[in-house]
Design brief:
The structure holds two protein chains of two kinds. By secondary structure, chain A is mainly α. Chain A is 60% helix and 2% strand. Chain A has eleven helices and two strands. In chain A, helix 9 packs antiparallel against helix 10. Chain A is globular. In chain B, 78% of the residues lie in helices and 0% in strands. Classes of the chains: A mainly alpha, B mainly alpha.
Chain lengths: 200, 40
Amino acid sequence: MIVGHYAAALVPYGRPDGRPLWLLLLCANVPEFLWLGLALAGIEPTQPASLLDATFPNLQVDMTYSHNLVPGLIQGALVFALVQAIWRDRALALWCGALTVVHVLCDLVVGFEHQLLGPDSPRVSLDTYGQMPQVAILIELVFALACVHFYVKGEARRGRPLSRARRTALYSAFAVGILTWLPAASISLRQLLLQAGISI
Amino acid sequence: MERVTEIAENARMPTLVLALIVVYAVFFALIHAIVVRRRP
C-alpha cells in the first residue's frame, strides 16, 4: 500500500477523546518512512531507482528491515514503548503500536514480496504488486474507503457530523491518491510520456 | 524537465524514493488539513 495506510489512522482518531492525528498518521507509516530512509542510505535500495522507469511489476525492492514480519512487530513494540514514554497514555501507545503493525500486515496483502525475518526466511506475503498490481490497488482503495467510512459514520454517531464538503474532500483525496497509481501497474512513466509524444 | 531528470540521474539520485517522500509529505498535510481543521 502507499497512501492508503494513512486511512488506518482515522480509525483510532474517530474517538471522543480526540487523539493527536499527526502522531497517528506518523505511526501508521513508520515502516514506510524507515524504508525511505534506508533506501536513500542504500541499505534497502530499489531497482530501477528512477521514477521514470519503475512499474509495480518491474520494481525490485529490498525491505528486509522495514517490512518483513518480525522486524515489523519489533517496530510496533518500539513505537508502543516510545509513545508510552512520552505521552504516558497506554491506549494511545497501544493504538500507535498497532497502526505500525497493521501497516506491515496490510503490505503482506497489498505489496511486494516480504519474508518472515531475513531475506532467506519463508515468504509470508502475496506479492500482489508483482502478480496482480491492478487488483492490489483496488484492494487498497476498498481498505482506505472503508476506514474513511468508519470514521465518518463514527463522527455522525457522536453528534458532530462532517460537512458534505469535508466528506467529499476526504473520500476524494484517498480515491485520487490511490487510483493515480493505476497506470504504474502496467507502464512506466517514460513509456507513458513516449506514447504522448514526449521523449525524455 | 529533461535537464532536471538528467541532473538527478547523473547524481545517481533515486528519483523514485524522492518522489515517494514528496507524495507522503503532501498526503500527510492534506489529510491532516481536511480532518483537523473541522474541530474547534
